[in-house]
Specification:
Layout (H helix, E strand, L loop, with lengths): L5 H5 L6 E6 L4 E5 L2 E4 L2 E5 L2 E2 L6 E3 L5 E3 H13 L4 E8 L5 E7 L2 E2 H7 L4 E2 L7 H9 L15
Helix pairs in contact: 3-4
Length: about 150
């Protein structure tokens, strides 16, 4: 394939930095790792959440939509709170990514430590949160380490 990414077509995109803020009514959850702040889409840096429709196994062996559950968990964290994201570049798909907070809580850490996302290999600082969620069989890890295969 001649062109494999937008950077091949258009050159390197400058590093994205800065901060995005939105009051609670202007915040929407797109999925378990993505927020919309006003008209801006931001991905949580270092967070890999299942997509809506992705199935995981529960402790009883039954399957459940862990993507929807991850989205609901992130929505619960931001509900009623303004969100502030410190941007630190773009993800592989070109979306802005950053470290976001709501109500004094790091959303990146909270969604991983609650077990609703994995830590990306680019975010070794979240590996401890993922290990803790796995050990406690939280969220996507309800059935043990093999529960989350996304």
């Amino acid at each position: 394939m001649l062109f494999s990414s937008p950077s091949v077509l258009f050159g390197r995109v400058p590093r994205l930095a800065g901060q995005l803020d939105a009051d609670a009514p202007l915040v929407a959850v797109v999925d378990g790792q993505t927020l919309r702040l006003r008209e801006n889409v931001v991905r949580l840096h270092g967070v890999v959440a299942p997509m809506r429709g992705q199935e995981c196994r529960g402790q009883d062996g039954a399957h459940f939509d862990c993507g929807a559950a991850a989205s609901e968990a992130l929505a619960a964290l931001v509900r009623g709170h303004a969100v502030a994201c410190r941007l630190d570049g773009r993800d592989d798909a070109g979306f802005p990514q950053g470290h976001c907070e709501a109500g004094g809580v790091s959303l990146n850490r909270a969604v991983v430590s609650a077990g609703w996302a994995r830590a990306d290999t680019h975010a070794p600082d979240l590996a401890g949160e993922e290990a803790g969620a796995r050990a406690l069989h939280l969220g996507i890890w309800r059935a043990g380490d093999t529960a989350a295969t996304f």
